[in-house]
Amino acid sequence: MNTIGERLKIERLRLGLSQEDFAARAGVVRRTQTNYETGERVPDAAFLATVARFGVDIHFVVLGERHPGQLSPEQHDVLDAYAAASPPVRAAALAALRSESHPQPAPAPAAGAMRLSPDAVPLHGPVEQVRKKS
């Protein structure tokens, strides 16, 4: 089983951060981050609370289990953008996302519209014509 330090490193790499960048965001120096990752030191609760705010899965770091409710940084970005958007933009975004996840069936043909049988072959010319397959 991985140690807390090893899991902290896994999370840092998942977020695409160098030790120096991660340490700066967490409010520690790079050497402290190295000590955490190698197991020389164990991070305290204040450090863990800080890194949780920028996307680290603390449940995973501490217990070694992925937390099913944890959102990815991309999902946080989507939620932040949605919260900052105007009502019309929110409505358009929801409509686009819903149409992607719940495709709507094609509308029924208008009354009186010509219906093609499954064995019809469209021919293209000056005027589209339909001919039965031989």
TrEMBL record:
Residues 8-61 form the HTH cro/C1-type domain. It holds the Pfam family HTH_31. Gene3D superfamilies: lambda repressor-like DNA-binding domains. Residues 98-134 are annotated as: Disordered. InterPro entries: Cro/C1-type_HTH, Lambda_DNA-bd_dom_sf. SUPFAM superfamilies: lambda repressor-like DNA-binding domains. It comes from the Bacteria. This is HTH cro/C1-type domain-containing protein. It comes from Chitiniphilus shinanonensis.
